[in-house]
Amino acid sequence: MDLEISNQRFLICGASSGFGRAVAEQLLNEEANIIAVARGKEKLQELEGEFPSQVQTVIGDLTDEKTRDEIESILTDQQLHGALINAGGPPALSAMETSLEQWDDAYQTVLRWKVDLTKRLVPHFKRYEYGRILFVESQSIKQPIPSLVLSNSFRAAVAGFAKTLSLEIAQEGITVNLLAPGSHETPAIDRVIQKRAEESGKSFDEVKADMEKSIPVGRMGTGEEFATLATWLLSPHSGYVTGQTISHDGGNIKGLFG
Questions:
Q1: pLDDT at 258 over 80
Q2: Could you tell me which of 6, 75, 117, 185 has the fewest CB atoms within 10 Å of its CB?
Q3: Segment 100-157, tens digit of pLDDT
Q4: Complete domains list, the chain, with CATH
Q5: pTM for the whole thing?
């Protein structure tokens, strides 16, 4: 299938590793152009070196307003077709382990910057009457994950924001969707495995094996599999899909609407 994204331009947050890197590489292989944002300078330079004519980098922390200012400043010269709103999650903690300061920090790292950046992007998309906004969150939106109370809470808030926004701008050619990944072979899963190992007294490898056994397909997903779905949702082909939270979890969500 031709995704019709050759020479289109996409903003990819968290492009240095994990889901962000996988989606960035998938888009680049489809001959799209990207603005790659992350804190890891070396990894972004590697990506730029591999695709020199297709990658523009912004090195910075997305929770820092200066980074969001820089992103906004480079959007004026040509059309942006889509954005992957993505970054790492908060610490793995149970509800009673958390402090109020950690709740304040999680609000900043999981929710606040995404709202601000999205509100900056929407006027640009409206100008061209076209846009694809895709949030990368977690299956915890549909089924809370033990010892991840901060993620469970604030990622659900992102879903509420995304759904509301999707209804407000649906008639302007702009879609807003959310991907809810389960366990994947990315660096982010290690903190969950380590937390469960500490709580259970098992080794890291034992906990990982138990997690894989509990997934209906019997394994964790790959970044490449995730990126295939994300790239389609960022393409013109997804124009009739908006306001949706779509699981990518190997069948892990137990509910009828997983």
A1: no
A2: 6
A3: 999 999 999 999 999 999 999 999 999 999 999 999 999 999 999 888 999 999 999 9
A4: 9-182+221-245 (3.40.50.720)
A5: 0.94
